[in-house]
Each structure stands twice: as C-alpha cells, then as structure tokens.
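Annex B. Sample input.
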Amino acid sequence: MNAERDTVVLPLAGAGSRLGLPTPKELLPTGDGRVALDVTLDLLAPHASRIRLVAVIGDGRESTVRHLRSRCTALGLPLAVAFQDPGLPESTGAVLSAEPWFGPATLVLLADQVLLAPEPEAVGDILDLIHAGHPAAFLAARETDPERLAVDGALNLDDSPDRPRVVGFADKPGLRAAGRFNAVWFGYAVARPSASRFLAALHHATLHRPAQQDALTALLGASVVEVGPFCDLGTWPAVTAYWKAEHP
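Annex B, continued. Sample output.
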C-alpha cells in the first residue's frame, strides 16, 4: 500500500476587492502568458508524486476550478475542491474548512503570493521538516521595509545556527510595531497532531483576537525554511511592479 500523501491547501475563496478584477485574483495575468495560480502550481510540480492539492473556494470560482483541473491533470497531481465554511472567515478559515483532508503534513500556500525567483525545493524542504519531527514550520523571507512588515504576516526570526525559529509573530502589526519583526511569511506547514492548536492560534491572530499564551507557543516555536523575496499581488502597485520585473 502506498504511503498517505501530504496535503497542500490553497485558500481561493477571497473576493480580491482591492483589485476590483472581473475575474478571481488567482487568475490575474502575470505578464508571461500565464496567471498567478500557475506560479504556485510550478512550486508544487516537482513534488506531485508525494502531495495532493485541496483548493478551498467560494461561489463563482468555476473558472479557477477549470484551470486547476487542467493543470493538475497535466502534472499528475490529485485535486480535491472544498467550499469554505461561511462561519470561518479569512484565509485561515479556508484552511480550517479543509481540515478533513489534512495529510501527515499539510502545507498552506496563498495563490496571490508569488516568489520573484524559482524555489523548486521549497515545498519538499518544508514537508521534510515536518516529517523529521517538527510540529510546524514557516516559509519566510527576510524583510527590512517597515511598510511591508506593517501590512503583512510578520515574523521575528532568531539567529539559531542550524535553522531560524519564530520568536515573534503578528498579522499586519502596523507601522508602530513593525520594528519588532525581520521577516514575512510565504506559507506554513503543520503536522497532523499539531494542526488544530497551531491553526487556532493563527486564526485568532489573523482576526486580531487575543489568544492564550499557551496557544501562541505553537506559532513562536515554529522552524523556518527561508525563501527569496516574494510579491503579494493583492494591490495594484504590487501587480504593476511584478509586471515590470523580469522573471526567469
């Protein structure tokens, strides 16, 4: 019997209201004849034999599902589609809606965040960390711009000689608190036994609700796989900057 596959969850139910697009934001053209979702699928392609993809959608995502079905068939990547529970808001709510499909390790990526250079091993590296016994881990990029740190998922990473760990976490901390952080996260992975506790803390942070200190340790102890700079295609300035940049 084959070993159970790991799961990758893509939250795709967001409205993308800041862009005012006639199509879902994950289908935003990236300027190279493809769409933002293709950049995420490129990260998954080298690892298709060990993962399954769960796309969490809302109403009106038929075009996204068609695109995913075509690409995943070509990649040999198993695909499931789930609807986000309306009682669970934000991207963390979408991930919680997919909990029945979690694997031994579950990786969450956001389809409107795109790396500025390919990182073909990033997905495998973070899944391997979970299988090596780490309860949770983040994909993160170092960041010094306080304006970016103020409006993103901000982390403070320590200087551990073997692998950085998260010692500070906030979702969109604002300019006054931005100086306490030195990185932004691109994705995260959890082991099945740790998922409920980790995601509860993350969901509370995303909704800016207080979490118990014991729950926060699930975030603060997480290991980190560092990646290069990435762009959040959630605003038009970011989109135009990405279009103007050259990508391999």
